[in-house]
Amino acid sequence: MSTEPITTAVEITDEEMRSIQDAIMKRYGIDFFNYEPKSFKRRLQRIYRKFNFKSSFDLWSRALKDKDFVHEFINEVSVGLTSLFRDPEFWKTYKSLCKSQFKDQYRINVWHAGCSSGEEIYTTAIVWDQLNFLDKVKSTATDISSRSLAQAESGSILKAKLPEYDRNLKEFDSSINIHDYFDEDKDEIVFREKYLQNVKFKNSNLIMEDYGVHQYDIIFCRNVLIYFDGPAKEKVIEKIYNALKPGGFFIIGFLDSMLSYLDEDKFEYYDLRQRIFRKKN
Ligand SMILES: C[S@@+](CC[C@H](N)C(=O)[O-])C[C@H]1O[C@@H](n2cnc3c(N)ncnc32)[C@H](O)[C@@H]1O
Fold first, then answer.
1. Interval between CA 272 and ligand 1 midpoint (Å)
2. Residues contacting ligand 1 via CB (< 6 Å)
3. What is the pLDDT of residue 36?
4. Taking the mean position of all CA atoms in its chain, how far away is CA 8?
5. Which segments in the chain show pLDDT lower than 70?
6. Which CATH number, 3.40.50.300, 3.40.50.150, 3.20.20.140, 3.40.50.720, labels domain 88-279?
7. Residue ranges of the domains in the chain?
C-alpha cells in the first residue's frame, strides 16, 4: 500500500491566477501573464504545496512582503526538464548542418534561450569539439530561473542521471566516451571548464528582454515556448526573427507546437522533422 500522503490540489480560479500574476508584475516587474493558464495553475499548485499556502491570498501576501520569495517562485514556475543529447537524432542532423554551413565561417554566434541546467550547452560543446569549432563559437545562455542558470554554469550533473545521458550519447555517436568531457566527483560529474569558456550566462526573461538585431547564426529555443500563450509566442518569434542574421537557424523542441506561428515569408523549413527553421534572406 502506498505511504504517500494524499494531498488534494487547491482549486485556483482564473481571477486568482491573474491577481497573483498582477502582484508579481507590480512588485518585481516580472511578466507571467503570457503563460499558458492550465500549466501555470499546475505550477501554482506545486508552490502552494511546497510553501503550505492555503489560498491565493497566502501566496499573494508573501509575494508582496518577501522580496526573496520571487526567486523561489520563478524556480518553481519554470520547469527545467532537459537531458544530455536529448533527442539524439536531432543532434545528428544538427552536427551535419553545422559542418556544411559553418565550416568556412570565422565566428559562429549562438544563443541558448531557456538553457535550463545546461545539458543543451554541454551537448553543443561536445558537437563543436568534434567539429573542431570550439574556438570560433561564442555562445550566450539564458534562463529565467537563477537556480537552473547557476547549475548550468557549474557544469555539474548528478551521477544518477548518467545512465540516461550515456544512452543518448551512445545513440548519437557510440565512439564518444562521456569521461572524455566530464571529470568525476563524488556524486557528480563535472563538465571540463575549457568547453565552457566561450559561453556567457545571463539570467533573463524571454518575454521582456531585448534580443538585439542580426546577432545570431543559431538560436536554440527548445521546449520553452510550450509554456507561452499564442500572443506571447508570436512576440517571441518576431524578436527571434529580428535577432537572427539572414540565413540564421532557429531551433525549437519536439514539444513546441507552434508551426502555425511561423510566418512562411520569414522562415523556411530546413528540417521540419527535427524542428530546424531558417530565416529567409
Ligand atoms: C523544459 S526546459 C528546456 C531546456 C532545454 N532547452 C531543453 O530542451 O533541453 C525549459 C526552460 O525554459 C525556461 N523558461 C521558462 N520560461 C522562461 C522565460 N519566460 N524566459 C526564459 N526562460 C524561460 C525554464 O526555466 C526552463 O529552464
1. 21
2. 78-82, 86, 114-116, 120, 143-145, 148, 205-207, 222-224, 227, 253
3. 80
4. 30
5. 1-8
6. 3.40.50.150
7. 14-77, 88-279
